[in-house]
Specification:
Length: 724
C-alpha cells in the first residue's frame, strides 16, 4: 500500500512539475513579447495597443502553438530553443489557417473572435491534458551562442523595421515608404474585408498572390484592433525573428551533429549577404528590411526540410557515419555531438505538410525549389521500399502547394489578359546587371553552331558569376566541397539531392523571367542547399586534413563569415538602415522650400490626417476615387488606400496580378475625366460602386465637386461624397 501511495505521489509530482514548467514557459514568453512590443511605442504605436498585442501573441499564438507542439513533437527529447521557436511557428500557422473558417463564417468581428477563442481554448485544454513530459526539454550544452545570435538578429530587425517604417505623425511631416511595403499592407487590409479578397488598388478585381503573411496581419488586426501598418512593421519583429531563427536552427539541428556547425550554419543564413549593388538578388532587403513574405516563406521552407530530414536522418546513413564511428573508437567524438532521433511516425509528416503549406502561401517560388529536394528524397525512400513514408510526405507536399497555387495565387483564374506577365527568357536575372549585359548581347546575337556554343558558355559563366556576386562564403564552401568529393570519392545520394536542388534554384533564377524580377526568389532559395553541401563536406575535410591545411581552411571559412556579417551590418546594410530609420533620416523626405509642391511619392501629415478621418468616419466597404496615382501617372503610389483602409476605384496599378487590362484602362480614363469635372463619369463611377472622391488640392485644384458634397477638408485634401 505504501509503495502504491509512493507511486501515486511521484506521478502527481511529475504532473504538477510539468504544469509548473508550462506556466513558467508561458510567463517567459509573455514577458518577452510584452518587452519587445513595448519598443514599438517609439515608432508611434500606443502603449495600450502594445499590451493588447502581447496578450494576442501569448494567448492567441503561443498557447495554441504549444498545444500543437505537444501533439506532434512532445513525445521525444527536444531543446528549449526548439520548443519556443517551433511552438510559435506552429501557433502562427494555426492563426493563418484560422482565418479561412472565419472567412467562411462571414469575416466579421464576431466570427474572427469566435474562431480565435476556440483556438485558444483548445490550446489550453490540450496543454492541461497532454501527458507529454515537458521535463524532457533541456537547454543544450551551449545555448549561450544561439541566444547571442538570436538577440542580435532581433535587435537589428527591430531597428530596421520600426525605424524605417514609423507611423506618419510620429516623425517629420513628410514621409516616404517603399512601394513594396505599402503593397504588403494593402493586401492585409483587403483580406480584412472579404474572401476571396479584392484588389484594394482597383475595385472589381480579385487579388491573386501568395498572401499568407498578409493573412496573419489581417487576422491579428481583426482580433486586436491594431492597424495593419503597425502589425506589418513596428510590431512584426518578435514573431518574425522567432520563426526565422527557429527554422534555420532546426534545419541545422536535423542535419549537423556538432553544435559548432549548427551555430555556423544558423549565423551564415541569418546574416547572409553578398555584393548587393551588383546583383538584384538582394538577400539583406528580403530577410531584414523588406521581406514581402520571403523571410517567413524561407523559414518555413527550412522547417520543411528539417522535418523531412528527421525522417531520413542523413547523419547516420551518409558519409558522416564513418567519421562518427572512427571518432567513437578513438575517443575523440566531440562532447557537443548531438543526434536527433529519427521520426518514423506520421506526426512528423503532418508537421512537414504544415510547413510546406506555410512556405507555399508565403512565397511560392521558394516552396517550388524545396519541393525538388522533397521529390528526390521521396524517390530515395521508394527505392528503399519505404513506400508509405514517400507517399505520405510527397503527396501531402504536392497537395499543399497545389492548394495555394489554385486558391491564393490563382494559377487557373482564367483572366484573359494580365497587367503583368512572366515567362522564360534569356538570362532573366542577369540581364538587369550591367556587368553582364554586353556579354549577353554579343552571344545571343550570333547564330549557328558558334552562336549556340558561345551562348551555352555564357550561361555557364553567368551562373558561376551569379554565385560569386551573391555569397562568397557559400561559393567557397561549395567549391571546396566539390573538390573534396572528387578527391575522396565521398559523393552520395544526399549530396546529389543538395546539388540538384541548388541547381534548380540557379536555373530558375537565371531563365525564368517574372514581373518585378521575382525570379530572384528561386536564386535566394539556393542559399540553403549550397550552404548545407559546403558545411557537410567541410566537416569531412577537416576530419582528414593535416593540421596546417585544416587551420588554413577553417580560417578562410571563418573570415568569409565575418566579412559577410560585416557586409550585412555595414554600409547599406542592417545597422545603417536601423540607425537612419531610428532617427527618421532614411524614411523622411525633407522639403526646404515649403512653397514647392510636395514630392509625389511622399505623404504629408495633413494627407495622413485626412485619410484617418476617412478610415474612422466612412463605411468599411466604401470605395474611393483618388487623383494622386492616375493624374500624376504614378503606377506604384498606394498611400491613400493604405492609410484610409478603403478600396480604391483605381490607384497604383503596377503590382496587379490577374487584373484585366481593359478594365484598368477604362477605370483610369474614367478617373481622369472625373477630375476634368465630367459629371457623367462621376455617375459612371458611382454606378460601379464609388462612394467618395479624394481631391488633392495641389494636384487637382480645378475640381469643382459637381454632384458631390464636401464632407471633410484639410490643408492638402478635400473629401467629397458622391450624391445619390
Amino acid at each position: 500500500m505504501g509503495a502504491e501511495r509512493s507511486c501515486v505521489g511521484e506521478l502527481m509530482g511529475s504532473v504538477c512539475k510539468e504544469k509548473k514548467n508550462i506556466i513558467l514557459y508561458l510567463a517567459l514568453f509573455a514577458f518577452l513579447s510584452f518587452f519587445v512590443s513595448l519598443g514599438a511605442a517609439f515608432y508611434g504605436v500606443p502603449v495600450r495597443l502594445t499590451v493588447v498585442f502581447a496578450l494576442f501573441q501569448t494567448l492567441g499564438i503561443f498557447v495554441p502553438g504549444v498545444a500543437l507542439y505537444l501533439i506532434l513533437m512532445g513525445s521525444g527529447r527536444n531543446s528549449v530553443i526548439s520548443f519556443f521557436c517551433m511552438s510559435y511557428a506552429f501557433g502562427y500557422a494555426l492563426v493563418v489557417l484560422a482565418y479561412f473558417p472565419a472567412a467562411f463564417l462571414g469575416l466579421n468581428k464576431i466570427s474572427v473572435l469566435s474562431v480565435q477563442a476556440v483556438l485558444t481554448l483548445c490550446g489550453i485544454i490540450v496543454i492541461a491534458r497532454k501527458k507529454a513530459d515537458i521535463d524532457l526539454l533541456k537547454p543544450e550544452g551551449a545555448d549561450a551562442p544561439f541566444a547571442v545570435v538570436f538577440i542580435s538578429f532581433l535587435v537589428l530587425t527591430f531597428l530596421a523595421y520600426g525605424g524605417n517604417y514609423p507611423l506618419p505623425g510620429s516623425s517629420k511631416p513628410d514621409i516616404n515608404y517603399h512601394a513594396d511595403a505599402l503593397y504588403w499592407v494593402e493586401n492585409s487590409i483587403a483580406l480584412t474585408k472579404q474572401f476571396p479578397p479584392q484588389e484594394l488598388r482597383m475595385s472589381g478585381s480579385t487579388l491573386f498572390y501568395h498572401y499568407f503573411a498578409s493573412v496573419y496581419v489581417a487576422f491579428a488586426n481583426m482580433v486586436t484592433g491594431i492597424d495593419c501598418f503597425s502589425l506589418s512593421y513596428s510590431l512584426y519583429p518578435l514573431g518574425k525573428c522567432l520563426i526565422v531563427f527557429g527554422g534555420f536552427y532546426e534545419l541545422a539541428r536535423s542535419f549537423f551533429p556538432e553544435r559548432k556547425k549548427r551555430i555556423f550554419f544558423t549565423a551564415a543564413l541569418l546574416f547572409s549577404t553578398g555584393f548587393e549593388n551588383y546583383t538584384i538578388a538582394n538577400y539583406v532587403a528580403h530577410i531584414l528590411t523588406l521581406p514581402f513574405g520571403f523571410d517567413l516563406g524561407f523559414a518555413f521552407g527550412a522547417y520543411f526540410l528539417a522535418f523531412l530530414l528527421k525522417q531520413s536522418n542523413p547523419i547516420r546513413d551518409s558519409i558522416n557515419t564513418e567519421i562518427i564511428r572512427r571518432k567513437r573508437e578513438d575517443g575523440t567524438l566531440p562532447a557537443d555531438a548531438v543526434f536527433v532521433p529519427v521520426a518514423e511516425n506520421g506526426k512528423t509528416a503532418v508537421a512537414s505538410a504544415l510547413s510546406i503549406l506555410m512556405c507555399s502561401g508565403h512565397k511560392a517560388p521558394v516552396a517550388l525549389i524545396f519541393l525538388v529536394f522533397a521529390g528526390l528524397l521521396c524517390i530515395r525512400w521508394l527505392f528503399k521500399k519505404e513506400t508509405g513514408k514517400a507517399l505520405r510526405n510527397g503527396l501531402a507536399a504536392l497537395l499543399c502547394f497545389a492548394a495555394v497555387m489554385i486558391v491564393c495565387v490563382g494559377v487557373f483564374n482564367g483572366a484573359e489578359s494580365r497587367v503583368n506577365a512572366g515567362g522564360f527568357s534569356h538570362v532573366a536575372t542577369l540581364r538587369a546587371t550591367p556587368l553582364f549585359s554586353s556579354y549577353e548581347e554579343v552571344a545571343l546575337n550570333r547564330s549557328g553552331v558558334s552562336g549556340i556554343m558561345k551562348t551555352a558558355f555564357l550561361y555557364i559563366f553567368q551562373m558561376g558569376k551569379l554565385v560569386i556576386l551573391i555569397n562568397p562564403l557559400i561559393l567557397f564552401l561549395f567549391v571546396h566541397g566539390i573538390a573534396d568529393v572528387i578527391k575522396r570519392r565521398t559523393f552520395d545520394y544526399i549530396d546529389l539531392t543538395l546539388i540538384l536542388t541548388l541547381g534548380a534554384g540557379l536555373f530558375m533564377g537565371l531563365f525564368n523571367a517574372q514581373e518585378g524580377v521575382s525570379q530572384l526568389y528561386y536564386t535566394l532559395t539556393s542559399y540553403i542547399p549550397g550552404l548545407m553541401f559546403g558545411i557537410r563536406h567541410m566537416k569531412v575535410y577537416l576530419a582528414h586534413a593535416d593540421p596546417d591545411k585544416r587551420n588554413l581552411t577553417a580560417g578562410i571559412a571563418s573570415g568569409l563569415l565575418l566579412m559577410q556579417i560585416m557586409l550585412f551590418m555595414g554600409p547599406g546594410g542592417a545597422l545603417e538602415a536601423g540607425w537612419k530609420g531610428f532617427f527618421n533620416a532614411n524614411s523622411i523626405r525633407y522639403h526646404p522650400d515649403q512653397s514647392d509642391e510636395p514630392a509625389s511619392y511622399s505623404l504629408q501629415l495633413s494627407d495622413y490626417e485626412a485619410l484617418k478621418w476617412i478610415r474612422d468616419n466612412t463605411s468599411s466597404d466604401s470605395i474611393l476615387v483618388s487623383d494622386r496615382a492616375v493624374i500624376c501617372n504614378l503606377d506604384n503610389y498606394m498611400y491613400y488606400g493604405t492609410f484610409s483602409e478603403r478600396q480604391m476605384y483605381l490607384e497604383g496599378d503596377r503590382y496587379f496580378y490577374g487584373a484585366n487590362i481593359e478594365q484598368r484602362d477604362s477605370q483610369r480614363e474614367t478617373t481622369r475625366m472625373i477630375y476634368a469635372n465630367s459629371y457623367g463619369d462621376i455617375l459612371k463611377a458611382k454606378n460601379n460602386g464609388a462612394d467618395y472622391i479624394i481631391q488633392t488640392k495641389w494636384i487637382t485644384p480645378y475640381f469643382n465637386g459637381m454632384g458631390c458634397t464636401k464632407v471633410y477638408s484639410s490643408d492638402t485634401i478635400n473629401v467629397w461624397e458622391i450624391n445619390g
